[in-house]
Structure formats: structure tokens, C-alpha cells
Design brief:
Helix content: 40-55%
Number of helices: 20
Strand content: 5-15%
Distance between the termini: 81 Å
CATH superfamily of the largest domain: P-loop containing nucleotide triphosphate hydrolases
Number of strands: 14
Structural class: alpha/beta
CATH architecture of the largest domain: 3-Layer(aba) Sandwich
CATH class of the largest domain: Alpha Beta
Number of domains: 3
Shape: elongated
Amino acid sequence: MELSEFEFFRDATLQICSSLDIEKALFNYLQHVRSFIPASHVAMALFDPGSRNLVKMLVIDHLGAKTSLPPVPMSRESAANLASNAASGGISIIDKLEEYSVAKDLRPYVDFSNHSAMIMNLGIEGKHLGAFILLAKGSAVFTKDHAELASLLRGPFSIAMSNALRYEELEKLKDLVFAENRELSRQLRRRFAGGEIIGAEFGLGKVMERVRRVAPLDSPVILLGETGVGKEVIANAIHATSSRKDGPLVAVNCGAIPENLLDSELFGHERGAFTGAIAQKRGYFERADGGTVFLDEIGELPPQAQVRLLRVLQQKTIERVGGTKTISVDVRILAATHRDMQEQVRSGAFREDLWFRLNVFPIVIPPLRDRKEDIPALAHYFLEKKSKELKIYPQSSIPVETVERLKSYHWPGNIRELENLIERELINNRGRGNSGRLQFEDFQIERKTEEAVADLDGSESLTIDQVVSRHIRRTLQTTHGRISGSRGAAQLLGVNPHTLRSRMQKLGIPFKYSQSDG
């Protein structure tokens, strides 16, 4: 190696390794290389052949100005060119960059008109890392001599890029974990600092006593009760008063995640584990390390995920989808369901061994109809909360006689139904020009109460699902099958139409009831 090449290699390597920040390293290198190669810009690009996305591209000019591109989908021609260049491992010289297919795909983001390019693919231990690019204004600027000089730095650049990418990923993960923990802790402290659980001294007195007993421990807790009784609020209270309160609380709705994505969401996945997995992802259990995982609607968990959850409970370890490494996790598990889990176990829909692991300390949360003494406090709490959200000033009020009417209702939708009712009444009340007193004139409490009681007055013993099914069917008959819209079943029940349709499907209520739905 001639002395000039040695000096170039030595000095350029020092600039490349001058910083773990890839932006600074690229800029420092460009300042040095301009004495040997007529470059005006330097760029780094990462391409994922599985998704055909240019997942990252950073362009820096000789003055330090940078352009960072979001993930850009590549055409078939561009993807083939990028894959071919990566496989060759050589240096490509492009005399007219604007005619190159990749440049055409990037035209909405950055203009490479009247530019030449020299592209060097980088790799380490047989793994393709990305591409290093030198750009120059004008056509046919770079020569074979320039390419040979640049090729001396393939090794140092590959190592530097590998280190920089790992450093960048670690920094992002660290910031993410810190932000998640800080925000969750802030929300929980604010929510529970004043003992904000309505009914803690009355209708929920026994529940809160059990919360106080189990919160300091790491034992699993299963929260049982109808939909809308406030299971997530109780789960938050357990976490906020536990020794894990400074750790994250990660809530997972097991019934809202598509089955084909459930393993990835719960346990994470490795890069390339499946089509579209362009980066490593931590699952809910890893994100909750040192804290609590709240598995809402645990009865909806499919069999495959039940097996993996059992392993977490037994061994406190997980494996990401597509990975072989066993990862230890320190989490406490809280679960909740509105289903009859004994029946789920008997029917084989839920593993008996998993149920025994979860059913260590059950807490049954009573429905609102069994704690009507809490309705006045809940009504005024939601009134204040919703008034702030809707920016209604001055705040409306609820007369005493109206509160008594609310207490006479059966509340099949529980606290969630009460919250929705008050929000709806506040919205309706804005255009009536009255004194701000909520009367709930459109809410037919008496009739609905009689219907609900009629369903329950029989001598047979009904499960929660049977009671809910009967009430939905009766309401659909009243609305002649109409679900959505004004005076539809969803409005009468105080739920979202999509939620009602989903509940009908789960309860086996045929959609013949809703043939006239608009």
C-alpha cells in the first residue's frame, strides 16, 4: 500500500469511528474524503428485501444539512436492483442518477437530478447491513480510481455502521422504556392519589378490602364481573398500591388482538420472523418487566396463547416469535373476565391448569344494580368529568329526584352505561336552552327496568351471559331489529353499535333480529 493510500485509510477510519452517532460520523468522513474524491453529499441507506421497503435513508451535504427519509416502498425494478447490488457486494458507479430506478422512487422525497453516485454495499459476517453512498453534482463524476480508493474503507465502514445501528436501537429502547414508565407512573399517581375509586367506602367496600390485602404481594389476581363494572379501575388500584407501582402497568385486551398477531403482541418477535417484521419488537410482557401485566378479557385467549401464558406463570420466561433465546421477565399478572370460567374450563375452551394458576386470589366486582348507593356519587363524578371533556361551562346539575329515577334502573351495562348516558344527556342538553339541570327525558328508565326485572323474576338460575342475551333480544324486539341510529337497540342499551354486534355474535344471537337495521 502506498503512503498516500495508507494515510487516506488511517485518517478516514479515524473520522468514521469518531462518533457512535451515525450522522456525526458521516459528516466527519465527508469533510475528510472531499480532499480525495469530489463528493458533495454522503448518504446511508437500509433496505429490507422482505417488505421491499427502503426502511431508512439519511443524506448529509458538505455543510451539515441533513435529509432523513421515512420508510419508502420500492418498485419491483428498484427492489431487484437493490437486492442484486447487496448480493454482489461490490461498488457501483452510476453516471446519471436521475435515470436509476431507485432515484425515481425517491423523487417525491429528495431530488437527485443532475447527480452522479457511487454506491458501496456494507456487510459483516455475511450479513448485509446497508449501503454507503457518495454523491456529486454533475454526470459521470466518479471514476474507477475513486471506487478503488473508497473500497479500502469497506471494513471500517461496515463495523462502524453495525455499531452505530446497535447504539441507535439501544438509545431508542431506553428512551421508550423511560417514557412509558414515567407516563404510566404519572397517570396512576394522579388517578389514585386522592382515592378516586367511587364507592370504595360503600358498594365497593368489600372489594377494596380484598385489594388492600393482595396489593403488596406478587400473587396473581383474577377480577370477575360483568362487562362495564370497572375491572380495569380495580386492576389499576392494585398496581398503584403495590411494591411495583414505580414500574410499568401494561394493559392488554385479549379479545381485541387478531389471533394471528396475538403471540407477536404478547411476546414480541425477531426481525424477519414473518413477512412485514422489518425490525425486532418487544412484546407486552417484556415492556412490563419489573411491573404488572393486566390481561383483560382473559377468557378470549386462544389455546396456543394459553400454553405460552402458562409458561410465563410457571417459569417467568418468554421467547420472541422467530427467536430461540429464552428471556426472563419479572412481571405480576392480573387478569379479568366477564365469562363463566368454570363453564369455559368444562367445555375445554380454557385450559384447566392455566385457570388454576390464575385463580389464586379472585375478586368479584358487583354490578351497579347491586351497589345503587354509589349511583349519586358516580353520576356527579361523570357529570364533572364529561363537562370538562366537552368544555361545558357552567357545569350542569342533576336534581335529587332525577338521581332517584336513575337508581330505579337495572343498569345491564353497569358503570359504562351510566357514563355513556350522562355524556349523551350533556350533549342533548346543550341545545335545549334550559337551566342546566339534567332531566334524562329521553331515557325510558321505567319501561326498561320492568323488562329487565321480568327477565330475572323466573325461578330458573341464569348465568350472566344468559341474562345479557335475554335483555339484548328483548331490546331488539322492541326496536324491530334496528341496532344503530336513533332509537336503535345500541342507543337504548347505551353501547356502541359495533360493540353490540360483537356481543350478539359471541352470545349466538342470530342477525335475523337486525334485518331492518339501517
